[in-house]
Design a protein that fits this description.
Blueprint lengths: L3 H15 L5 H12 L7 E5 L5 H8 L4 E5 L10 H11 L6 E4 L15 E3 L9 H5 L5 H15 L1
Parallel strand pairs: 1-2, 1-4, 2-3
Helix pairs in contact: 1-2, 1-3
């Protein structure tokens, strides 16, 4: 089993090679800032995961299974699922990450449960019109409360 720093190195080199991150230090700072301590994560869900960077980090650090929900085309950057596929091949535990190419609203986890859920820079894309007037429109507020309840449950 590799050390956490060795896992970081392997992960970061692959991501910098395949994505727009310009250096390892910036990437790792960003990932650590968003995810914090991921020790002990078994099953992860990454909502609006894009290229899967956060998903692959979880898998690289021991998660047995991670689902990356990314509907490429629903407000995301074009081509992210292609990069996802490249990273999946490049990383030692890439096969632990699965892409659900759908919206969060349409995603059906079945009987699956998750002990770690993240959405990095995507929460506003769940419903952009509702997000705009979230503070002033009760229906928009209730829509987002419904999303958060679904995530919590």
């Amino acid at each position: 089993m590799l050390s956490a720093s060795e896992n970081d190195r392997i992960f970061a080199e692959a991501v910098v090679r395949r994505t727009t991150y310009s250096n390892v230090s910036r990437l790792l700072h960003h990932v650590h800032y968003i995810l914090g301590d991921v020790h002990g994560v078994e099953r992860g869900l990454d909502i609006g995961g894009g290229q899967g960077i956060l998903s692959f980090y979880l898998a690289t650090h021991g998660a047995n299974s991670v689902v990356c929900v990314e509907p490429e085309g629903e407000g995301s950057t074009e081509g992210v699922t292609g990069i996802f596929g490249q990273l999946r091949q490049d990383l030692p535990n890439g096969n632990r990450v699965h892409l659900a190419q759908t919206t969060f609203q349409e995603y059906d986890p079945g009987d699956s449960t998750f002990d770690y859920i993240v959405t990095g820079n995507a929460i506003n894309h769940l419903n952009e019109p509702a997000c705009i007037d979230l503070k002033t429109n009760k229906n928009s507020y209730d829509t987002y409360i419904g999303y958060f309840k679904r995530i919590y449950d």
